[in-house]
Amino acid sequence: MSTLFVSGAGTEVGKTFVxxxxxxxxxxxxxxxxxxxxxxxGFDEVNPNDxxxxxxxxxxxxxxxxxxxxxxxxxxxxxPVSPDMAAAHEGRSLYVKEIAHFCRANAETDSIxxxxxxxGVMVPLTDRETVLDLMVDVGAPVLLVVGSYLGTLSHTLxxxxxVQSRGLTIAGIVxxxxxxxxxxxxxxxATLSRFTGEVPIIALPRLxxxxxxxxxxxxxKAIGLx
Length: 226
Ligand SMILES: Nc1ncnc2c1ncn2[C@@H]1O[C@H](COP(=O)(O)OP(=O)(O)OP(=O)(O)O)[C@@H](O)[C@H]1O
Ligand SMILES: [Mg+2]
Description:
By secondary structure, this protein is an alpha/beta fold.
């Protein structure tokens, strides 16, 4: 596996958080990593540092400049809404084929490529297509990032079934602990695992900045990326 598509059961579940963990892990293992976030909404061109694009660039060890932002996030929109709506608000349109082509371009054989999606697996990109159609076009294994909030079991299993029904491989599921969880992370993990067969499920606790890497699980290793 040299390309991984990081998607989620919804927005704000931890996709970027997990993407940066993967980048750090891959780089620590001495491998080359490429990471992109092709489509981003809610992007502030004046202050890109804390955006997903900025966080990914910093994890890659790159400066956050207009050029580096252009290189990994060509489709940027101002409004923090679904990409089809954000694009329409600016009189623009997205084309899944173009984005898929960008995702597949320059896939050097010796580097591991991570693509962070946008929103959840079925957020609309165009009038008729969702992120799932993009994932199908790209064809890479999917890492599903989900939360541990009340309601996550149904959201996760629904997202999982949607992805698998289109013939895509699920590389793994990361449960990134939500701020409010009704049960321990291990209980959510055990319950999900009864429905997910062989798919690796990784429990990622809610980490604080001061903890550094101490409680960060080895996600790339667990899903066979490195
Ligand atoms: N396990 C965790 N420990 C600590 N903080 C976390 C964890 N998971 C997510 N967060 C924090 O929660 C917030 C939302 O996470 P993140 O930005 O990664 O979500 P996302 O799925 O990438 O959202 P989007 O749909 O906007 O791309 C961020 O501030 C992130 O740092
Ligand atoms: Mg993100």
